[in-house]
Amino acid sequence: MIKIYTKKTVRTLSVSNLPNEDLEHVLWIDLLDPTADEIKAVEKMEKIELPTRNEAQEIEVSSRLYIENSTLFMTATVMVRAASPDSTTTPVTFVYRPNRLVTLRFDDPMPFKGFAVRYERSPELFQTPQKVFLGLFDEVVDRIADILEFVATDLNDLSTLIFMGESRDPGAINYTEILKRIGQNGARTANARESLVSLQRVHGFFTETCGNLSGEQVDEHWRITGKDVIALADHANFVSSKVTFILDATLGRVNSDQNTINSQQNKIIKLFSVLAVVLLPPTLVASIYGMNFKHMPELQWTWGYPLSLALMLVSAVVPYLVFKYKRWL
Question: What is the pTM of this model?
Answer without folding.
Answer: 0.77
